[in-house]
Amino acid sequence: MRGKSGRLGRTGRRGRLLGVRSVAGQVLLLQVVVALVLIVAAVLALSFQARYDSERDAQNRSRAAAETFADAPGTLAALRSADPARTLQRHTVDAWHGSGVDFVAVMTTDGTRIADSDPNLVGTHAQGVQEAARGRTVTEIFAGTPHDAARAVVPVMDDRGRVVGLVSAGVSIENVGDAAARQLPLFLGAGAVALALATASAALVSRRLRRQTRGLGPAEMTRMYEHHDAVLHAVREGVLIVGDDGRLTLANDEARRLLDLPADAEGRHVTDLGLAGDTAELLASGRPVTDEVHLAGDRLLAVNTRPTDPFGGPSGTVATLRDTTELRAVTGVAAVARERLTLLYEAGVRIGTTLDVTRTARELSEVAVPRFADFVTVELLDPVLRGEEPTEVHTVMRRAAVSGVRDDHPLQPVGDLIRFDVPTTPMAAALARGEAVLEADLTVAHGWREQDPAGADVALAYGIRSLVSVPLQARGVVLGMANFWRSAPSERFEDEDVAFAEELAARAAVAVDNARRYTREHAMAVTLQRSLLPRVLPEQDALETAYRYLPAQAGVGGDWFDVIPLPGARVALVVGDVVGHGLHAAATMGRLRTAVHNFSALDLPPDELLGHLDELVSRIDEEEAEDTGAGITGATCLYAVYDPVTGDCCMATAGHFAPAVVRPDGSVDFPDVPVFPPLGLGGGPFETYEVRLPEGSRLALYTDGLVEHRQRDLDAGLRLLRDTLAEAPGRTPEETCRAVFDAMLPPHRGDDIALLVARTRLLPPDRVADWDVPPDPSAVAPVRAACVRQLERWGLDEIGFTTELVLSELITNAIRYGSAPIHVRMLRDRNLICEVSDGSSTSPHLRRAATTDEGGRGLFLVSRLAGRWGTRYTPSGKVMWTEQSLTGGPAPLEVPALFDDAAW
């Protein structure tokens, strides 16, 4: 009976819960009613919408049928015929059957039916056609004879736009209603399904609500409150509830005991209860905390606070208090461990921010002071400071960093040599063992005192009393030593501190080793790069030059420049850039610079030289792509040739910036040099740009690192360069370089910067002499005599005989093997330059001559008599040139009869 009554009781309770008096039952009923109303409204709306859509569809169908019939080619002709009724009746019936509408009629303009799908209506009068008779198409829901319908009336017009008849088509309203009625079951079915789903969901919600209330009535709720109150006061953890006004609402017995609350505490503000200031402030603020430790008398309380709003209670704060006095010692240890972990994390972030060895050592010393040690000294081996591999001799190191809580410490300064000769010192012992050594009390550390007795006495008098020495090791190799010192009144180091010091030193050692490796690679790259760049600019009179070069701070790159003297007193100016940094970029720059020197020795025009350089870079790319999978990612070059005789400057560029030209009046412009892709991309053939420069003009050649960086875009950099160059027209190249660098040098160089400034000079006219030579052997002697006289005017009698022999051979060969016009020019520069040009492009060369040959040694004589000689080609032929010292005599002639210049 008891079991049965229990089941009956549960059944009765469930019935009450779902009844209208229970919250769950009321919620269920309300949700079902709302769902029913919404579904009925939706079904009605859909029904009306379906009716409306059916009527619109019927009107559209009617209009389409009427317009089709009215626009048919025979309709207008039939209306004009003598008997339109007989002609149109058959077509009207056919249109009725084919269009799917309920009727089709053809009417006169007054509405009289001429033809109709229903023959019985022929001759009757249609209503409401007046608008159509005026020429407008009418679509409407029509109520009238013979029945209501969705009707369209379309006028039939002749060629002059007059209405000659009307065509009407329509669908009866009964059929429209039938179409809407056919959709009604679907709507009702959907509504029924929606009602079922809404009822089911409402039942689920009510069931969940029933589970949450657990079916408790008022009596049960009262008992539950009493039980909770008993538990609240019996639990051995303090519980407080504070209202949003800061007044205490509830406090259990344990909270009263822990906080020593007065009997009338409830209802009073927490700041009036005699609590500690931080505890009262926390309870009044409502700030949520977790295990925040507070001192209450001689007790250490762990306080947790949470707002009561999210749990449905009145606005306020609930706080729990737990007595953790016995855990005070454990808490102190945990706090120290947490502090050490935080310090190790900061060390990982702060040590090694740069790739500088000295800076990394200083970061290690700074991160440990003052939270671990009062003073920190870091010593490194000299090879490590230079970026080299460390040696095995560890007895001598150089102090790299010192940090401390005070600046007046007695420790040796940065830069001093530190010796560890006595093996019993903590430093020597740590190096020998490869692990940290602790000297908790330096007053009894006899080994430490033995190394430097005077220094030890000064340190002890200062207050230093404890030391941990740790070797800095990476990859099993000793790099240096870190010493952590503590002075009074700080506590002495203990055994627990040794492991932390080793961990800190290990992280710093890795950063030091990375910086050492970078320093070594950077030094190698800088050395290689500087060895490949010109150390001094060559002497020449055509240009006054000055330059500046700065490698990138993060690693050397591939920027380069050059000044190359050319035959005929001309000078080539070169500036280029290889994309990238490091050894590869520096080595590639050296290869390209050497190639430019070799190509310039052939005296090629700028466009041809860049074409050869482009082919070379393409070959390098192919070779390196096969070996490493990556070639030169980009290289640019600007090559310019200046002639001091004419003042002409011709230049060509492969992806590089055009130079800035500063005129003597101070105006600055950037020539429109034809732009071509960088080298190696097959951008040729290149084009040459020529400009004539007045004497005193300045050319500024530069790389992109000067005008473009992260804080300044290219356009702004070019404007700043233009303004800087225009400031003082009379500046020398050296002053120009200084002014440009002062104004434009970025705060952090992410790329190399190269700047080459050249001021033009012109060769005076009295130092140039030239003659036209007829293509007749008899003209050699007069020209030769004129040249000798010119040398006498220049005061060069000493080299007259040699020059006469050289010109005689060159002119004779030009007449014999070349073609007109033949021209001779002499230039008095640092050397005497003789040039013989002709219209032939045949290249002369040395060849072997037999002992019995009568000729064939002329060019060999020229090569022996002149300091330098060669050939350059022009658009109209070639130029043979020689250079001779202004003071030297002819070279001794020892002709072994081996070579000749017969091939031209």
TrEMBL record:
Residues 226-291 form the PAS domain. It is found in: Cell membrane. Residues 356-522 form the GAF domain. It is a multi-pass membrane protein. One of its GO terms (molecular function) is kinase activity. It comes from Streptomyces roseolilacinus. GO terms for cellular component: plasma membrane. Keywords: ATP-binding, Cell membrane, Hydrolase, Kinase, Membrane, Nucleotide-binding, Phosphoprotein, Transferase, Transmembrane, Transmembrane helix, Two-component regulatory system. The chain crosses the membrane at residues 23-48, 184-205. Residues 540-760 form the PPM-type phosphatase domain. InterPro entries: Bact_Sigma-Reg, GAF, GAF-like_dom_sf, HATPase_C_sf, HATPase_dom, PAS, PAS-like_dom_sf, PAS_4. It comes from the Bacteria. GO terms for biological process: phosphorelay signal transduction system. This is Histidine kinase. Its main location: membrane.
